[in-house]
Amino acid sequence: MENIELDKRKLKTYALASRPSKVSISRFARKLNSKESAASLIDKLPGFLAADDLKKVINAVITAHQSQHPILLGMGAHVIKVGLTPLILQLLEKKILNGIALNGAGIIHDFELAFAGHTSEEVTDGITGGNFGMAQETGELLNRAILLGDREGLGLGTAVGKMIWEEKLPHRESSLLGQCYRMQVPVTVHVAIGTDIIHMHAAADGAAIGRTSFKDFDKFCGLVAQLEDGVYINLGSAVVLPEVFLKAISLVRNLGHQVNNLTTVNMDFKRHYRSFENVVKRPTLGSGQGYQLIGHHEIMFPLLVAGILARLEE
Q1: Which residues contact 44 (CB under 8 A, 6 or more apart)?
Q2: Residues ≥6 apart with Cβ < 8 Å to 304
Q3: N or C: at which end does the chain have fewer Cβ atoms within 10 angstroms?
Q4: Which of 17-26, 267-276, 292-301 comes out lowest in average pLDDT?
Q5: What is the mean pLDDT of residues 188-201?
């Protein structure tokens, strides 16, 4: 090969002002002050990547709420364990959320908090001797509520919420399921048999668990059928609820419900395959928008709620 000397003086250049750019100082963060409110903090975030997505999600929630389109929250049990129930109840009281979907573990922690004011055992301390998951009241009372609910034709979420509220458990005011029952907000529970500690107890009735959870799946599909122009938030569920949501979307569209212009949001502390594909990407193909807000629930969700409440007061 010959040795070619390149003459850089002949390069064709252009004026910087004529070039489209992805970053502009107009979108930079604004200086904060020592008395910054959460709402003004969000407003001053830079207009890039996740900060920009957070603002767009807040706008989507406010738009759906003001247009009277539904906003549904699907959530894993860890959300309850990190103390976020009061903020969810706040959104329910302001009628921002129109329905809640939980996995099976959600009823465990919500019940224990309502009954005893504490939850979440140390698994490593109990697994060696076989004591993990063997709290008597948790196994007996939850399984009894499910069995009674099945006899009354209730879904699992309603059955547990009814027990918590009507039996006046000591901390029922702090219970998500109990308060949903009181406010008559749909709450559905989607169980995978064998994943929850109450399935180990003698009082567990597989048929009752299956029927009540299946009834909740039908109820959830009925909610998803109305999500046209609405918002679905998946908070801290990596497998069960993303799978349930995708099946519900397919079912209702098969029955003629278009569910277009849907905004979906996945909030978790790390990226997962199913929550991205089944919540953010697939349901919004061709019509809608999906977002991922990655970070710890106990930080990201309060930021989202603060932004929503601030916009409501404008």
Answers
A1: 29, 30, 31, 32, 36
A2: 54, 57, 58, 267, 293
A3: N
A4: 17-26
A5: 94
